[in-house]
């Protein structure tokens, strides 16, 4: 599903990703772990197509096709979804309006009919109930005044509605209490499917108690320095990242 080869990325002449290789197979849940500043968010942004980054070398293939030349919305139409580490507040844009626009843009790109408002409402309400999102929140501007946990659940709501083929979650666990963490993990687990892959970025092992990954990759200084199974996350929790900081430096 996702193949990244020798990815080298700069921001303002500063090298952030430094020859990163990563393969995520179709149907797989891959965890990306690593110390703060190792480039995890940068990796997620570069896959999603955020501006400001210069891809100096390397390749990102989605289902064998390069996506580096595609605009963010084109990548989204191909099924790439990023749940932000810090979701933005968008004053003046109603949550429902946003969800409808996002969903219908993708349906249009795939040649599917747009959803009617009643159909949309039904889908959103069903998904919101599963994530314990208060229906009143859906009437407010997107993320405005939401708590940290509510913002993260809103990201997962978007993900559930858009049914992406590649889900990227950037530290969705940060700022969540244990109940919200379980709700979010249930939401992610419900999306597990043979034709869908997930990249779960986390600093801590805790989330991985609830979302059990198929593979774990450790990032340090802008590259993947170790890959393994879920036992690697447990080892990291016990030993920390000190070994990897030294190894990559
Ligand atoms: P992580 O998500 O693993 O904590 P990031 O991808 O956010 O790491 O950041 C990796 C490195 O890139 C850090 O050293 C950070 O300071 C730097 N960095 C990220 N964004 C910018 C930016 N806009 N300008 C300059 N440096 C940046
Ligand atoms: Mg980050």
From TrEMBL:
Enumerate the spans annotated as ABC transporter domain.
2-246
> What CDD domains does the annotation carry?
ABC_FeS_Assembly
**Highest taxon of the source?**
Bacteria
Q: Which GO terms of the molecular function aspect are on file? A: ATP binding; ATP hydrolysis activity
Task: Give the keywords, sorted.
Answer: ATP-binding, Nucleotide-binding
Q: Which InterPro entries does its entry note?
A: AAA+_ATPase, ABC_transporter-like_ATP-bd, ABC_transporter-like_CS, FeS-cluster_ATPase_SufC, P-loop_NTPase
Q: Name one Pfam family in it.
A: ABC_tran
Q: Which family does it belong to?
A: Belongs to the ABC transporter superfamily. Ycf16 family.
This chain belongs to which protein, by name?
A: ABC transporter ATP-binding protein
* Native source organism of the sequence: Chelatococcus reniformis
């Amino acid at each position: 599903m996702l193949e990244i080869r020798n990815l080298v990325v700069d921001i303002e002449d500063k090298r952030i990703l430094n020859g990163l290789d990563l393969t995520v197979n179709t149907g797989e849940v891959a965890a990306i772990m690593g110390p703060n500043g190792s480039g995890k968010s940068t990796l997620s942004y570069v896959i999603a197509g955020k501006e400001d980054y210069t891809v100096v070398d390397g390749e990102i293939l989605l289902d064998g096709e390069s996506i580096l030349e595609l605009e963010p919305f084109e990548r989204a139409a191909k099924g790439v979804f990023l749940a932000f580490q810090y979701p933005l507040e968008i004053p003046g844009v109603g949550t429902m309006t946003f969800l409808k626009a996002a969903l219908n843009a993708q349906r249009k790109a795939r040649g599917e009919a747009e959803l009617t408002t009643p159909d949309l409402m039904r889908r959103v309400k069903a998904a919101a109930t599963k994530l314990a999102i208060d229906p009143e929140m859906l009437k407010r501007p997107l993320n405005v005044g939401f708590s940290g946990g509510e913002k993260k659940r809103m990201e997962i709501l978007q993900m559930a509605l858009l049914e992406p083929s590649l889900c990227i979650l950037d530290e969705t666990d940060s700022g969540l209490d244990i109940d919200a963490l379980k709700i979010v993990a249930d939401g992610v687990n419900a999306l597990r499917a043979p034709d869908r892959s997930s990249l779960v970025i986390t600093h801590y092992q805790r989330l991985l108690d609830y979302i059990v990954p198929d593979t774990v990759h450790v990032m340090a200084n802008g590259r993947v320095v170790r890959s393994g199974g879920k036992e690697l996350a447990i080892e990291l929790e016990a030993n920390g990242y000190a070994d990897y900081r030294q190894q990559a430096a």
